[in-house]
Design a protein that fits this description.
Blueprint: H1 4-8, H2 13-30, E1 55-56, E2 63-71, E3 75-83, E4 86-90, E5 97-102, E6 129-138, E7 148-151, E8 155-158, E9 162-169, E10 188-193, E11 199-200, E12 213-216, E13 234-235, H3 242-245, E14 249-251, E15 254-258, E16 264-268, E17 279-285, E18 291-299, E19 309-312, E20 320-328, E21 334-351, E22 354-357, E23 363-365, E24 368-369, E25 374-376, E26 381-391, E27 394-403, H4 408-411, H5 413-425, E28 429-435, E29 441-448, E30 451-458, E31 468-469, E32 476-483, H6 484-487, E33 496-513, E34 519-521, E35 527-538, E36 548-549, H7 550-579, H8 590-617, H9 630-669
Parallel strand pairs: 1-23, 2-24, 2-25, 6-9, 7-10, 8-14, 9-11, 10-12, 12-13, 26-36
Antiparallel strand pairs: 2-3, 3-20, 4-5, 4-15, 5-6, 8-9, 16-19, 16-21, 17-18, 17-21, 21-22, 21-23, 26-27, 27-32, 28-31, 28-33, 29-30, 29-33, 33-34, 33-35
Length: about 675
Amino acid sequence: MKHGNLIRSFALTGILASSCLLAHVFSFAAAPQAKAAEAVVAEEATVSTDYSQETYLDDDRILFGVNSSTTTGISQSLGLSVSSQVITYKNRPQDGNIFVKINDPTFVSESESKVPTDEEGNPLGDLPIYEGEVYCIKGTKQKRSKDVDVVIPKYLTLQGYFIIHVSGIVSDVCADSSSTADDKWKNIANIYIHDEIETIAEDAFKGIPETIGIKCLGEEKEGWDDKWTDSTNVEYNVEAPESVTSILEQSSTGSYAFGSGENFMVGFHEEGEYYRPLTMTYNILDENDNLVTTDAEYVIPLNSTSRLFDAVGSSVGSISISFSVDIPIEKGLHIDLGSLLFHNVFEAVKVDGKWLPDLTIPYCAIPSVSAQTVFNIDEFVSMNIKTISTFMGYTEFGVDVDVKPGIFEKANPTSYIQNRENIEKGIYYVNYSFVALNLARYRVTYRVNNELKEEVIRVNAPANYDFVTLDKKTGNILGLSFENSAVGEGFSIQTVEKIELIGFNIRLVLRTINSSNKESTINKSKVDTRFGAVVLYDKSVNTGVKPVDIGIILIIIAGVYVAIYAAAAVGYYVYSKNRYKNDEFRRVNNKKFLISSLKNGAGFGLVVMSISFIIFRWGLMNNTVVSFNPLDVFVIIFTVAAAIFLGLFIKDVVISVRNNMKRKRNRKLKLDQDIVDDGTH
């Protein structure tokens, strides 16, 4: 190959490259595509709001719990649990039977809280501390000469697992379904309440006999309800005898379940006479906790994926279930968690082999609220849309996520206190991840024929890779994508109005660089916080972010390349034709020039398109959730083809340079001239 071939190589490459690209684009777009996710159909059934016939359920039969609460500015998410048994931990019976339940949103399960031990059984680290409250008090049944003093412990330790800091007392704390009204206070002389009890519910000690003294080791606090007791035998700032102070910290003797596992349906979704979805009513407050709306109503969607009802019980389902709800709410407002009431709860009965709700006795339930802190997503991260693009029927949006590690102290105070020194020194750092994305959803609003449509689709994230870890200091671009056909007919990047991510978790965990120079996780530091809905893109707000059609840009690049290459090739052709017209060895051969230009033009077109695909893949369509990316195929094909071409091109250049050097040397030595030997040498 001569040097002229390097420039000649620009004529048909752009045509071939753009033709190849367009052929792939149109063939891919025309082919039938499987939907990446099925649309979730919203319920439209009418719900009755007449709850006047409902009876309040006792929490020793079924217990509703609100375990977490978060807000995003457009929604409030509640983590709910329903159980027909309440799991508690009890102290030593000789000190009065105190049953404590954990009401800490950071508590996951007993098994996950077990602390690793060494070969001798000693714990390898401090036991985590969870907040709890006294659920039940019983007098001892042991025969004694006199009544006993019942001491509420400050800390109850389940050895090898965790410590419960007892900071509250529930309502009707001495109620026991197995006891009569006359004997539930039996054998109790005094009840000692330590000075770290922050909350006491209404009617906690209602009906307590005046013969039983209530001894408070501190002052009455703001968190104690005005009607926490009707007894007059109450003393404050009592100096506790040594027999009391010595048992304020105790070891638990194990767990105890209240409730018999009765069968209840908490929402029945079969259309017809039995349709009774679980419904929640509540009050709405403003930023200053002033009442805005009373008795707002939210229908809780079906949680079960295999049945038309949700249920708890020993026969009809699990003893307990947990799920989350995301309630749309205006910015600046929030739900009064103390006003929550759940309706359409029924005993489950079996009729002809089928479980049905007993509609003759409708129930409602007041939940136990353990969500002591309401988190806002702005305390964890700030999210701003940076790019929104489309290619081959897929839409990708890149969201700039800035992390705020300071929230770890509030989100996991126990771990923070235990590791504060290393955190402040920078030895431990807070690692952020978006988790459970395979359970999350996109809510997409778009306009077709001047009509707004809204669809909810699943996030395309495989179950075994459902998280995205962010940079430990700055965060990074979170790239999410979905297939246009999964949204609905008429959707395109030009019609999109708003995109929201709903039902996702942000995980915080402490990490460090270990002695092997690898990252390791600090034990018991993980905490997941779920959020309801966050706006990723809003056309009316994000006016500076313009949707980009990568296919159109690639066609423009190919066209520009064709124009530049063709102009360069024609120019060089005219130049070479005139300069070497009298040189029989370098004179331009039209056919060879055309073939060489086509070949090299196609090769350099591959290089240009490969670079373009790579830039767009890691720029506009860098989806950080592992899923299909339509640019990947083109990156691989064009990069491999370009690499092969460059290899061959470099080989030809080396050969051409070597031949030119040899020719110049021969000319200099006149080795290529015919010399007649005249015999003078």
